[in-house]
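Thread: Newbie trying to understand structure tokens

Hi all, I'm a second-year student working on a class project, and my supervisor (Dr. K.) asked me to get a predicted structure for one chain before our next meeting. I've only ever worked with sequences, so writing a 3D structure as a token string is new to me. If someone could post the tokens and maybe explain what I'm looking at, I'd be very grateful. Here's the chain:
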Amino acid sequence: MDRRTAISRIALVMGGTFLSSDSIFAAASSVVENFDDDAPGIASGEGIFSKKQIKMLDEIADVILPRTKTPGAKDAKTVGTFMARYISDCKDESQQKIALGGLAKLDEECKKRFGKKFMKTSRENQTKYFSELDAEQRVYTKAKKAEDPPHWFRQFWELSLFGFFTSEVGSTQVLRWEMVPGRYETIDYKKGDRAWGG
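---
Reply by user tm_fold:
Sure, no problem. This is what the structure looks like when written as tokens:
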């Protein structure tokens, strides 16, 4: 799946259409780097999520939106904290359990497949597994009934995009940004141009 497709799918959540040409699942062979302990919200955890779980959310977001020609999720330094706060404050208890259970499943499955927990797994293997999870959640989402719970990976996928493209880095360095306070102004758009973040 490319970044253009992923961003277009999250447009309903964001209230707009995004366009970009970079790959959402860029494979890389480097081992996962440790995330900055001083990032906002990391020191004491956030909502129902611990410091360790927020680092995991940051890593999940960065696998979904890696740095390419434009910044990735880790460059924003706020996406994991945003996801933790959003799930803690805006999701009901059943969805919170799905999210926490998803983190546990991710570690368990990575240990089975690669002999290491998610955070210690190479980016190449993380990316391959996420491609499988994305295919799995799409099949599940298409077939599920209204009363069925959302797939845990879809929740992380949507919030990664939401958190990144509403961050300062996502809105100003990946999307185009221009302050137009108090007036309506038409803007020329050419096919393939980046969408506007503001």
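A couple of things are worth pointing out once you decode it. The longest helix spans residues 93-114. Residues 179 and 185 are 11 Å apart (CA to CA). Feel free to ask follow-ups in this thread.
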